[in-house]
Amino acid sequence: xxxxxxxxxxxxxxxxxxxxxxxxxxxxxxxxxxxxxxxxxxxxxxxxxxxxxxxxxxxxxxxxxxxxxxxxxxxxxxxxxxxxxxxxxxxxxxxxxxxxxxxxxxxxxxxxxxxxxxxxxxxxxxxxxxxxxxxxxxxxxxxxxxxxxxxxxxxxxxxxxxxxxxxxxxxxxxxxxxxxxxxxxxxxxxxxxxxxxxxxxxxxxxxxxxxxxxxxxxxxxxxxxxxxxxxxxxxxxxxxxxxxxxxxxxxxxxxxxxxxxxxxxxxxxxxxxxxxxxxxxxxxxxxxxxxxxxxxxxxxxxxxxxxxxxxxxxxxxxxxxxxxxxxxxxxxxxxxxxxxxxxxxxxxxxxxxxxxxxxxxxxxxxxxxxxxxxxxxxxxxxxxxxxxxxxxxxxxxxxxxxxxxxxxxxxxxxxxxxxxxxxxxxxxxxxxxxxxxxx
Length: 439
Fold this sequence. Notes:
Shape: globular
Structural class: alpha+beta
Distance between the termini: 76 Å
């Protein structure tokens, strides 16, 4: 009986001890969230009166040394207290005619966290209710500017050292909180943004050189699942590296790369590359292997777009040659193919008149109108309406970036003003929330 009681007591003590120990990952993830929350919500921080990067650099060594959960939470509470008093303010009544888009808005971690104490949660909740209501220092929003959201007042580090762990953490914390509060499509991501933070921290912490750091950044941006995201790594100004390309445009079909367009006819002909040529391996890797190993390195919102970007990526590089396996007449043939600089590899596109002039609008079979919104301009709208008004229907092709013709077209399609599109604008008085507006 005594042995049983001892085992029970030992188990209870062990469990209590385990619950009191936080991993480095847990401490940093929590610090990231609180650092970002205070940056945009605390009245004495959001106005820019604190050097907020320096505050992070000061707190990080303390966080690292914290041995227990109590030690860690005490550090956070003392940190918040050091920022000065937050005065209780009169709540702002929500206007009746305002609609909020709240699919991205989630501060539930403030009260539901398994790590934060009740007193710390209460303190953060108080700051939320009495948040900063002036002009945000760290983020600006101008509806009429081309940039929309701007982060102009961040400290820039001219001597940014790619081996500096603190700067690695700062970069992750900044980027994660930009997305957390100001990325309108966060709710569409395949993976919750909180989970992304937990998974990315080890990569940023382990980065020992330039390649490691940029690899971590690239993997972070890919988690947005947005095809508009492109990660660029600028080469050293003194570098003599030249990016070379395959002399043809290709597409991945059934885990094979198929040539769909020749970009440099003489170069392609010299290497027996034709439309329909099938590539099955690149540098001894199958296309299936290449598809799998690059999924976390190329941003795309869908598989089709990912495969298109992947094709462009794997058929270019800084070497002069590439080893390819071709499927030709039922046989597999391996050859070393030359890559060329951008001008030579895209030679056909540089020829005079090489680009086919596309029609802005036309009448298809069965009297159906078609409009290419990518090239239609406002000045073309009257002619387009005149030509297509007697058709049975009109297809407006927006698989592209239209040139702001929506309002001009709407004037012809609607006999009187009509709400037809809803925009969401960030509410900087309540970071993370968006206002819905009909236009």
